[in-house]
Amino acid sequence: MFQTTMHISLLIISISTILFIYRVVKGPSTPDRVVALDAIGINLVAITAILSVVLKTSAFLEVILLISILAFIGTVAFSKYLERGVIIDNDRDNH
User: Fold this and answer.
1) 85 φ/ψ angles, rounded to the nearest 5 degrees
2) Is the pTM of this model over 0.85?
3) Residue 50: inside a domain, yes or no?
4) Which residues have C-beta within 8 Å of that of residue 75, sequence separation ≥ 6?
5) Is residue 52 part of a domain?
6) Of 61, 59, 58, residue with least CA distance to 69
7) Are 87 and 81 in contact (CB under 8 A)?
8) Where are the alpha helices (DSSP H) in 1-95?
9) Residue 91: inside a domain, yes or no?
10) Contact, 47 vs 88, CB < 8 A?
11) Are the C-beta atoms of 50 and 10 separated by less than 8 Å?
12) Range of the domain at 24
């Protein structure tokens, strides 16, 4: 029963990832695309975690951490770009 639940969860999360990819490509606005990219990162973490449980291994824990960090940094960079138009500010060094 547990294995069936895990496989169904993988299927549902995979379908939602495909739908998020569609939102990234056809998104009406840039903030919608950023949110979809963040959600894809979260789904990748979930898929990796479920695969780790199904395969009964802890080898993927570092991968989960790496994907989480990259998704967070990407979301922060995109948000900063949307807010200011640049990612790295050099103005504070000129004062």
Assistant:
1) 90, -10
2) no
3) yes
4) 34, 37, 38, 41
5) yes
6) 61
7) yes
8) 2-26, 30-54, 61-84
9) no
10) no
11) yes
12) 2-86
Q: What is the CA 27 to chain-centroid distance, rounded?
A: 16
Domain annotation covers residue 94 = no
CA distance 20 to 17: 5
pLDDT value at position 91?
66
Residue 68 φ/ψ, nearest 5 degrees: -65, -45
pLDDT, one tens digit per residue, over 63-76 is 999 999 999 998 88
Q: Judge contact between 24 and 37, C-beta under 8 A.
A: yes
Long-range contacts, 78-87 (Cβ 8 Å, 24+): 78/34, 78/37, 79/34, 82/30, 82/31, 82/34
Long-range contacts of 44-53 (CB under 8 A, 24+ apart): 44/17, 44/71, 45/71, 46/13, 47/10, 47/13, 47/14, 47/17, 50/6, 50/9, 50/10, 50/13, 51/10, 53/6
Domain count for the chain, please give it: 1
- What is the C-alpha to C-alpha distance for residues 60 and 31, in angstroms, rounded to an integer? 31
Tokens 């695309």 found at = 33
Q: What is the mean pLDDT of residues 18-44?
A: 92
